[in-house]
Amino acid sequence: MFGAVVCPRCRKGFAVDLEHDTSSCPHCGRKVQTRRMKTYFTSASASLTARAVGDLNRRERDLRTFDGEVMTEKERTSHSLKDVGSVLTELGEFTPSELAARLEMKDADELVSRLLLTGSIYESSLGRFRKT
Ligand SMILES: [Zn+2]
């Protein structure tokens, strides 16, 4: 019997031969005891098990992408407009990149255009902005 398992160290899926007591992760070399591993799939067929391993690894990648999106969303909403307002007052005249640095954002272009639209800031000189 073969089993699809997930490596406890690198979290990648791989196939083990359940007849063997131990197996090694092909990704990071971690030795595991096959009987203690949670099997996500078991089959007498090596090729079916390999396909299940492929599914496991794809799912892992999807989860990572999802994490990335969650983090971007958090970054975008981590500053309430009230915080931004007091930062704008502190900065006086500022460029979008100065604002981004102050708010620890990757870029503040979207924020600046939103603030412009809502009339919270105005362009005081080319590429520089001030709180209204
Ligand atoms: Zn591993």
Helix and strand content put the structural class at alpha+beta
Tell me the β content.
15-25%
The secondary-structure element order is EEEEEHHHHEE
The termini sit apart by: 71 Å
| Biggest beta sheet attributes | 3 strands, antiparallel
Number of strands: 7
Provide mean pLDDT, rounded: 85
Q: Catalogue the unreliable spans.
A: 67-76
Oligomeric state of the chains present here: single chain
Bound molecule kinds, no repeats? zinc ion
Shape: rod-shaped
Computed over alpha carbons, the radius of gyration is: 26 Å
* Overall number of structural domains: 2
Please count the helical segments.
Answer: 4
Structure description:
This protein is an alpha+beta fold and 132 residues long. It has two domains: 2-75; 79-131. The protein is built from four helices and seven strands; from the N terminus they run βββββααααββ. It has helices at residues 46-77, 81-91, 96-102, 109-117, and strands at residues 2-6, 13-17, 22-24, 31-33, 41-43, 121-125, 128-131. The protein has a three-stranded antiparallel beta sheet with strand order 2-1-5, covered by helices on one side. A two-stranded antiparallel sheet has the order 3-4. A two-stranded antiparallel ribbon has the order 6-7. A hairpin with a 6-residue loop joins strand 1 and strand 2 (13-17). The longest helix is centred in the middle third of the chain and has 32 residues, at 46-77. 17% of the residues are buried. Residues 67-76 have low confidence and may be disordered.
